[in-house]
């Protein structure tokens, strides 16, 4: 295994073990786990932040690739809602990792980052609704709106509890219906 890959795997293991509490992870711990010197981590990644950002992107990319629920019998609208609920449930189950990923995507925005991969999935399902309006911009509005609600959920707690799955699912259903139109099936 290549040294760079050893370092990434060690960092990913530590991120998972600490449930995304990045502050609890040190470069020395990563180096020890990878069986390398601290200098090699700095050489390959320049900083702990760069390494952690890369690892978080890999973790979430893997989850995105694997989190395709069985939706064969659902209508196009229900497929869109289900896809969104799966991704938002992941955010809520992994808040620290998710915050890092979303903020990194906002700041550094790459063509294939986690937000873009998720957007492609939303767009795929929304496009199957066969709407005449611009579906892509509606999907962009939806994903960034939900990310904003997630990041600021503590501020909305007195009006809406985003950590409550029933409230969250209801919000997603309402948003999708308002943005893409109420299901006509």
Describe the structure.
By secondary structure, the protein is mainly alpha-helical. The chain folds into two domains: 3-48, Orthogonal Bundle (Arc Repressor Mutant, subunit A); 67-180, no CATH class. It is 70% helix and 0% strand. The chain is built from nine helices and no strands. It has helices spanning 3-17, 27-34, 38-45, 48-66, 76-93, 95-108, 114-127, 135-151, 165-180. Helix 5 packs across helix 9 (165-180) and helix 7 (114-127) packs across helix 8. The longest helix is centred in the N-terminal third of the chain and has 19 residues, at 48-66. The chain starts with a helix and ends in a 5-residue tail after the last helix. The model has no long low-confidence stretch (mean pLDDT 86).
Number of domain units: 2
Mean pLDDT: 86
- Give the termini separation: 53 Å
The fraction of residues assigned to DSSP E strands is: under 5%
- What is the subunit arrangement here? single chain
Radius of gyration: 19 Å
Major beta sheet summary: none
Helical coverage, percent range: 55-70%
Structural category is: mainly alpha
- Given the C-alpha coordinates, what overall shape results? elongated
Low-confidence sequence ranges: none
Number of extended strands: 0
**What is the ordering of alpha helices and beta strands?**
HHHHHHHHH
Distinct helical segment count: 9
């Amino acid at each position: 295994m290549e040294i760079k890959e050893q370092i990434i795997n060690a960092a990913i293991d530590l991120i998972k073990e600490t449930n995304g509490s990045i502050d609890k992870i040190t470069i020395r711990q990563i180096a020890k786990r990878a069986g390398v010197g601290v200098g090699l981590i700095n050489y390959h990644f320049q900083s702990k932040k760069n390494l952690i950002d890369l690892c978080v992107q890999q973790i979430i990319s893997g989850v995105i690739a694997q989190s395709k629920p069985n939706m064969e019998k659902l209508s196009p609208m229900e497929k869109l809602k289900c896809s969104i609920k799966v991704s938002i449930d992941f955010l809520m189950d992994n808040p620290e990792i998710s915050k890092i990923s979303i903020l990194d995507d906002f700041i550094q925005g790459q063509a294939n980052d986690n937000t873009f991969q998720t957007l492609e999935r939303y767009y795929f399902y929304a496009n199957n609704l066969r709407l005449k309006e611009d579906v892509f911009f509606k999907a962009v509005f939806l994903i960034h709106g939900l990310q904003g609600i997630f990041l600021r959920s503590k501020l909305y707690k007195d009006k809406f509890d985003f950590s409550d799955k029933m409230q969250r699912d209801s919000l997603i259903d309402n948003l999708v219906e308002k943005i893409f139109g109420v299901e006509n099936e």
